[in-house]
Design brief:
Elements lengths: L1 H13 L3 H8 L7 E6 L4 E6 L2 E7 L2 E2 L7 E10 L20 E5 L10 E3 L10 E3 L3 E2 L2 H10 L5 E5 L1
Parallel strand pairs: 1-10, 4-8, 7-9
Antiparallel strand pairs: 1-2, 2-3, 5-6, 5-10, 6-7
């Protein structure tokens, strides 16, 4: 025990402090994640450090019902209820599918517009929703697992 303490002391004494100063003063690099939803191509692209890493086909709103602008993921819900028709989460009739990622559209609390699954996968690729972004359930489940609350989301034409 005494010998190991002496060795540690000698190593600390011998190693010049200046060789590590650049590393200890540098801020650690952290990956940034963001998403862009392109309504004209019906795609959702996930970016890591500004590099596109995943592209998913989506459905967007009829006419101009999907809002455009800068938002963020404000909440995440597993098996969301469809309150308009009181359909419980997990029910095969539920048009919201298996996951919900709410968008921070002003004055909505993250519960009006979101990225969600669907019970109608044939609708993916079109302008068919009431404003939300629909995805295949397997795709939105991937997002749910990997995209944290607070992730920036840009929706553009």
């Amino acid at each position: 025990m005494f010998r190991s303490k002496v060795m540690l002391f000698l190593v600390l004494l011998i190693v010049p402090y200046g060789t590590y100063s650049a590393q200890t003063n540098a801020a650690p690099l952290e990956d940034t994640v963001s998403m862009i939803i392109d309504k004209s191509s019906h795609t959702l692209t996930v970016y890591v450090n500004e590099d596109p890493v995943y592209v998913f086909q989506v459905a967007t709103g009829r006419r101009n019902l999907t809002p455009e602008g800068q938002f963020s993921i404000s909440n995440k819900i597993k098996n969301p209820w469809y309150l308009r028709k009181n359909i419980p989460g997990g029910d095969k009739r539920n048009p919201l599918g298996t996951r919900w990622l709410g968008l921070s559209v002003p004055n909505t609390g993250g519960y009006t517009y979101g990225i969600h699954g669907t019970n109608n996968p044939y609708s993916i690729g079109g302008s068919v929703s009431s404003g939300c972004i629909r995805m295949r359930n397997r795709d939105v489940e991937w997002l749910y697992r990997h995209i944290p609350v607070g992730t920036p989301v840009t929706i553009r034409e």
